[in-house]
Amino acid sequence: MEAQYVLGIDVGGTSVKLAVLTVDGNLLEKWNVPTNKADNGAYILKDISSSVKEHLLNLRLDKNQFIGAGIGVPGFINMEKGMVDFAVNIGWRDYPIVRILSDYLDMPVVVDNDANLAAAGEYWKGAGTGADDLIMFTIGTGVGGGIIVKGDILHGVGGMGGEIGHVTVVPEGGTPCNCGKAGCLETVSSATGIVRIGNIEAEKNKESSLYKQKQEGIQLTTKNIFEAAVRGDQTADAVIEKAMYFLGLAAANIANVLNPQKIVIGGGVSAAGEQLLFPLRNHYDNFALERVKLDSEFALAELGNDAGVMGAAWLAKTYLKD
Amino acid sequence: MEAQYVLGIDVGGTSVKLAVLTVDGNLLEKWNVPTNKADNGAYILKDISSSVKEHLLNLRLDKNQFIGAGIGVPGFINMEKGMVDFAVNIGWRDYPIVRILSDYLDMPVVVDNDANLAAAGEYWKGAGTGADDLIMFTIGTGVGGGIIVKGDILHGVGGMGGEIGHVTVVPEGGTPCNCGKAGCLETVSSATGIVRIGNIEAEKNKESSLYKQKQEGIQLTTKNIFEAAVRGDQTADAVIEKAMYFLGLAAANIANVLNPQKIVIGGGVSAAGEQLLFPLRNHYDNFALERVKLDSEFALAELGNDAGVMGAAWLAKTYLKD
Q1: B88 in the same domain as B233
Q2: pLDDT for A59-84, tens place per residue?
Q3: CA distance B203 to chain A (A)
Q4: How far apart are CA B277 and CA B270, in angstroms?
Q5: Per its UniProt record, what InterPro entries does this chain match (chains A, B) (predicted)?
Q6: Residue A237 CB: number of other CB atoms within 10 A?
């Protein structure tokens, strides 16, 4: 019986996403289980395993038909050792995830960082299909990233490759970042950063609808800010312009180093679509080398929340192939 | 007769460096031929070929004992097509270098950018030995770069990967760069950049020995500036500090993306050694993520002018192996 299926698993703070796919990427089934964070996440892998066994039974598939499972975790991963060094939102620390999960599932397992796998998912079956050199920015609460070089995930020596959100874009007087540095891209171009700049600019521009909204006790969100800009609010427009200036600078600098074919923008903030891409491209074009600019194209992520499981399945098929 | 030798060729503006090596990197012979730039470099490959044949005869080696030849060229290269798109200092444009040279030599040939090959040379047999993830900065008239990811040269989709010198470090009001942009790393941290800043600062600080030197009609060089700093000249010190601030910022930002094990500094300016590395490390540490910083180490290039031929030989053994 030739191995022809892969299992993709994406561990998140509230739920674990799972999917069964063929090695060609055809989805047979996808489902979720809740993330049980009790006892520092000690039950999560057992829950995954029970659920997988049940689903394979229903699908009439045997574990021997699987190349194996890929699993994505938000945190610092040592892929070679199969360890989660630290996953703050899950509770795992120095956790031998590959050994435990492969024992439970009785199939080979490979682990990687969730942001890397989102990039791999978009590369395999999303906005980056066919682009063997690709950068993905995931713009949500923070700015995450994943990089594909020559058709493989860029890991770096310690698994920290692709930490795009912590490129310094405000070298002097920048806002402190969760990482311990200051002036990181994440402080100005994430949802959090955009809202922070929005609050500052609203106070400075009392004619702005953002100021009025705040006066009414309604907290600013990126959605509000993008909507206000559509209505012609110049303050909202300037906030977006500033966030995209820094994102364009960082994207161009990374592109000058990597010469990618595609730059994929995902995460919650990417819902703004062309309203985000237009100023982003504009600033990118100013800071990218001519040939680098001509080689590259921006694209909105296509897989949404499925990027992680798709990337995990890609990881299994790519890293576990016999 | 098993193929066990490689030929490394490094085309420069004044001379072509050549070397015969075993696949393990043992040097049998190295020599130079002048670069004949007449008729847009039309005779260079023929000169190389004649010289190689002569040397192989003397070494009693047959072309069938060679895996092939690697050749490095300063310019834009299309490696897959075996073309030099444009090499301004040599005169080649849309030049099918692989086809012509492999006809002349009657062995397989592979071409790459000279800066990439300098990085590969240091990775194979120099300061970066064993570091499968490596960044090399070549600081001379300009700032060149080469990147090794997972033991292979990073090329990007169009061969522009590693254009480290054109990362923007002064986004607003930067000095115009040869590339058409402004505020590139090359404008502040190359020898040219350091001398340019030196001239500006010398005029502003008339007590500096740099000002006195200029008054005597002696042009500033990076060597002068580093020497003045050793003597305690504060203006010279501030010039070096500024150049290394920007180099440290760029190196940290690239490292945050690539998570390298080694950052190799080569080129003429690297002769300043610890006088350069000390302020560089200091600024790098400010802008690099903690884990990225812990994973990485600075090193001075070890191969000097031989890095290019060594890298070209590495390219042949790596890309032409049957």
Answers
A1: no
A2: 999 999 999 999 999 999 999 999 99
A3: 26
A4: 9
A5: ATPase_NBD (IPR043129), ROK (IPR000600), ROK_cs (IPR049874), ROK_glcA (IPR004654)
A6: 19
* Burial status of residue A38 (CB atoms within 10 A of its CB: 0-12, 13-18, 19 or more): exposed
B156 and A253: CB-CB below 8 Å? no
Distance of alpha carbon A239 from alpha carbon A229, whole angstroms:
9
CA distance A64 to chain B (A): 31
Burial of residue A67 (number of CB atoms within 10 Å: 0-12, 13-18, 19+): buried
Q: Is there a single domain that holds both residue A275 and residue A311?
A: no
Instruction: Assess contact for B256 and B292: CB atoms under 8 A.
Output: yes
Contact yes or no for A256/A122 (Cβ under 8 A): no
- Spell out which residues of chain A touch residue B166, defining contact as CB-CB under 8 Å: 256, 289
Gap between the Cα atoms of A13 and B291, Å rounded: 23
In this structure, what are the phi and psi dihedrals at residue B113, rounded to the nearest 5 degrees?
-65, 140
Which residues span the domain enclosing A311? 5-121+306-319
Q: Which residues pair with A8 in a beta bridge?
A: A19, A70
Contact between residue B198 and residue B185 where contact means Cβ atoms under 8 Å apart: no
Q: Is the pLDDT of residue B3 over 80?
A: no
* Integer Cα distance of A245 and A161 in angstroms: 23
> pLDDT tens-digit profile of B5-58?
999 999 999 999 999 999 999 999 999 999 999 999 999 999 999 999 999 999
Residue found under tokens 């993520």: B289
Alpha-carbon radius of gyration of chain A: 21
What rounded mean pLDDT belongs to chain B?
96
Residue A1: what pLDDT? 53
What CATH number has the domain bearing residue B87? 3.30.420.40
Q: Nearest Cβ partner of A259 from B157, B171, B179?
A: B157
User: Residue B19: what residue type?
Assistant: A
Pairing of strands A76-78, A83-87: antiparallel
| CA–CA separation, A65 and A81 (whole Å) | 25
The verdict on A258 and A279 lying in the same domain is: yes
Residue B194 in tokens: 């350091």
Mind listing the pLDDT tens digit for each residue in A241-256?
999 999 999 999 999 9
In total, the C-beta contacts within 8 angstroms joining chain A to chain B are 139
Give which of B179, B257, B263, B287 to mutate to test A binding, by max A Cβ within 10 Å. B257
- Looking at the structure, tell me whether residues B59 and B156 fall in a common domain: no
B31 shares a domain with B153:
no
The count of structural domains within chain A is 2
With CB atoms and an 8 Å threshold, state whether B295 touches A181. no
**Same domain (yes/no): A219, A313:** no
B180 vs A: CB within 8 A: yes
Q: Which pair of structure tokens corresponds to residue B289? A: 């993520």
DSSP state of A218: P
Reference B307, options B14, B27, B23; nearest CA is: B27
Token representation of residue B276:
């350069």
Identify residue B55 by its one-letter amino acid code.
Answer: H
Q: Are residues A265 and A212 part of one domain? A: yes
Q: Coil, helix or strand for A191?
A: helix
Whether B201 and B243 map to the same domain: the answer is yes
